[in-house]
Description:
Distance between the termini of chain A: 63 Å
Number of strands of chain B: 10
Oligomer: heterodimer
Number of strands of chain A: 0
Bound molecules: adenosine-5'-triphosphate, magnesium ion
Helix content of chain B: 25-40%
Order of helices and strands of chain B: EEEHEEHEHHHEHEHEEHH
Number of helices of chain A: 9
Order of helices and strands of chain A: HHHHHHHHH
Largest interface: A-B, 29 and 41 residues
Strand content of chain B: 25-35%
Amino acid sequence: MSINFPKALEIFQENISLFLYGIGNTLLFALIGTLVGFLIGLLVGGIRAIEINDYDSGLVKVLKHIGRWITSFYIWVFRGTPMMVQAMFVFYLLKPVLQWTPFVAGLVIISINTGAYMAEIIRAGIQSVDKGQNEAAMSLGMTTIQTLVFIVFPQAIKNTFPSIGNQLIVNIKDSSMLNVIGVTELYFQTTSVAGSNYKYIETFLVSALIYLFLTTLASFLLNYLESRFDEERKTKAMDFCS
Amino acid sequence: MNEIIQIQHLQKHFGNLKVLNDVNFDIHKGEVVTIIGSSGSGKSTMLRCVNLLERMDGGTILYHGKDILASGNDVNQYRSKVGMVFQSFNLFNNLSVIENCMIGQIKVLKRSKEEARAKAEKYLKEVGMYEFADKASTKLSGGQKQRVAIARALCMDPEVLLFDEPTSALDPEMVGGVLDVMKDLANEGLTMVIVTHEMQFAKEVSDRVIFMDQGVIAEQGTPEEIFNNPKQERTKQFLSRYSNR
Ligand SMILES: Nc1ncnc2c1ncn2[C@@H]1O[C@H](COP(=O)(O)OP(=O)(O)OP(=O)(O)O)[C@@H](O)[C@H]1O
Ligand SMILES: [Mg+2]
């Protein structure tokens, strides 16, 4: 068991364009996946946090129940199966209909997968907001949706900021699973490089260091953003009216 | 006929616990009603039922003679006309002081931003919080928060304002300022229903005092009648606990 460090550096330099291409895609999948996943999470988490009120009409109650069933099913399936399996299944299932490329399919799958985790994060965030906030909004006559959008979401998102950042870091790593459908992200590129030089240890050392660099950079950025976010709220409350 | 709200045969239970048992009373325009009674007698629950924060198990609430729960009536429109001031203030933590006072006007009453701002400034001045307009609402003291909460409710031009122990969560030195604001509102003719343990204040501002005990209205009358000549034994007992303190 030995690692040839100079060789690793050499492999990195020789294949830099392949690695860079992989890094670009990995970051793209992680960022888009987290962003779109976040939006899905807001929607799904929001639906799951809507309370069924005693004063709702029959139709509204039925709709809310249906919303709960569908969202529970979605979360159950996508958190309960590996993303690799989801990728294979969804990619080949919809390929005849959509004629999509691995790239597009990968973006869709990582977003939907992240959405399922985000939904639960956001629901927990919503439920951590003091009930009095809801009651005050209701006492002004605001609707459930208005209360969620203008009062609860802004507070819930702040509470969930660390978990959202964590999801980005998870996605930097987990986008590697999309290699199964042929997405040319960093892991995929690493296997191609290793497949041609047979230096598995050194090539994957390079890959590991790159992943480590990306996740560390991401967590620094997130910490910075979080403190900026806090400061902004201190000086100027969000302008909901514009 | 100057009743704004009529509460008829109101029933409420939590599981097996009967909290309100056939409560009947009317709120008249311009009237200040205070509700007193020992802890657990159902005062908060009654207010919350009036504002539909709590579901009633029986009875009706008429608003200008119309059943508010009849189908086709807009519950949110009704709520916007029946303001509520909470014991724990419940200012919106993500909004500044003036935004707290504007959001309901803009989102519920559909007022323009300018109109909402003007109204918010007017009422913040009235409660003495105008210079805090752009502060984060989380940065205020309890007494300041409660005054902003009152301004927020007033901005909706409510027909009735409900107060649930508005000074109970305050430090003693903050209580006076909030009660003064409420006295001014009473003098201006605002219709108010106030749950309170401040007996002196109740004596001063009330047109009518309601004493609740174990989920029923045990006795009601003018402050003079309730505080000086209570008829029921349980009213006397309750009041004696206060005068001995
Ligand atoms: N959400 C709830 N679930 C179960 N029981 C409740 C709930 N809210 C109130 N109760 C019970 O209902 C009874 C009346 O409560 P309520 O808060 O109306 O009393 P109150 O007169 O306002 O008392 P206080 O002076 O302490 O505020 C109490 O026994 C209380 O424990
Ligand atoms: Mg109470």
